[in-house]
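Hi F.,

I've been meaning to write this up properly since the lab meeting, where we talked about keeping a consistent format for the predictions we share between groups. The idea is simple: the sequence comes first, exactly as it goes in, then the structure tokens exactly as they come out, then a line or two of notes. No screenshots and no reformatting. I'm using this chain as the first example so we have something concrete to point to.
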Amino acid sequence: MKIKGISRRKFITAASAGVAGAYATLHAGVVRAMMGSGGMGGGGMGGGGMGGTTTIIDPPPGASFFDIPNAVKNSAGVYELLVKEAKLRLNGTPVTLLTYNGMYPGPTIRASKGEMLKVRMVNMLPKTTSTNILGHPRNITNIHTHGLHVTPSGMGDNMMMTAAPGASLDYEYDLALEEPGHLNFYHPHVHGTVAEQYWGGLAGPLVIDDAAGGALSGYETHVMLIKDITISNGLPEPYTSTSQFMMGKEGNLVMVNGLVNPVLSIRPGQVQRWQIVNACNARFLKLSLDRHSLWLVGTDGGLLDKPYKLPTILLAPGERIDVLVKADQGGGNFKLLSLPYARGGGSLQQVTLLTLAYGGTSAGDSLPSSVNPAAARLNMNLSLLPRRQITLSMMMGRGYINGISFADMTRAYTITSSLGTYEVWEIFNQSGMDHPFHQHVNSCQVLSVSGGDPDYASLYTTKPAWKDVVIIPKMGSATILVPVKDYDGMTMFHCHIVEHEDIGMMGVWNIGM
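Output, unedited:
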């Protein structure tokens, strides 16, 4: 049953019968992480955090790098995502995870600018009346296409639609206004259960393919979805207290495409393109590739004008980057690290994510001088624009936006905007930890950042980058320029430490004609 004409102002539980399609199984071959303690490891604290011991997580090189398989359309041209429990082996251990199509991570959905992307989600989770510790049913789900510039109404990126076990939802995303080469991902977004379902395995990449003959289309490309988890008794470690929601979960296994420290081969002189998604619940990643630069060519909202050379780059939960890596060291093995960063929750860690191994015949690749010439920073008179102030805070097991903790679409801090305008949002953080602020539908440009990582602030306040996740530093602030363009409807903004979203750090954005 396909559902049309959904009201913007109420939650819908859509029911339909039937399950179609087959599912793939997880690619095995993960190695066990080896954990120890040590010094800073050259990483630096980052974020102006407090002192403390840094844990070094440096597993040995593991299985060969694994490219997540692409989702396959059915005979009707629809991608089918079956949400189900699946028994897999993760890091050598049997585990039951929540999956899309029996895979961890979920399959890569690929589409092109101008396409009508169709996705059928079937909820095959067990029928149960069980609730989580926040009191929400565990088995209700839906899909958020994180990053897509599409309508939040009807059968688009509509968070008001949900599906109970045995039901399905048929999504349609008009990609007429999408950008080629745009990296996104998909995950559940039912308030109160996002963290648990996301932690349990539900996330997958969503890529808008490059334009034919685009500047990056000739490079060997790898999508990397970075996700962490802790396994307990063959299951994702459960949430047992509200303090875990306040802090946000960080797992003791940190994986790239479901593997611990996979080995990625590169030819001497070759340039590879890495499209990286931080799909962790709460873990910040400060990425650094030993003795190599990261050449940034794309951010949350799409491709940049040219490559920008960076020694490190900070990636909060929900953020994405598109980078080029040139094998210019002659030979050897080199570690992609997540350096210590003090987000204000969790422990300081340095994690080996991936090993880059030189091999094969030499290549003579060069970096492009231009990527997306149309990319530019907006230049307008900000004094004429509407200005909003948004304050993030936490206390007593709850998250708040402007003093209101989200309960449902009618009990939430609400912004009402007029379609076809621009607004300036000043976002203040009154808590002791960083919050990655995510707004649906429209990407923004960052005007200023107070506090936090100075390199992060410098990068995003000067480059022609579009963002749908912006780090608001602890006891700091950020000001963003928000287009209110193209699509009306009711959507959301929230902290993308998804536990914080579940305990109320979310607001409603009502975009009207």
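Notes:
Residues 454-462 form the longest helix (9 residues).
The chain has a mean pLDDT of 90.

If this format works for you, I'll send the rest the same way.

G.
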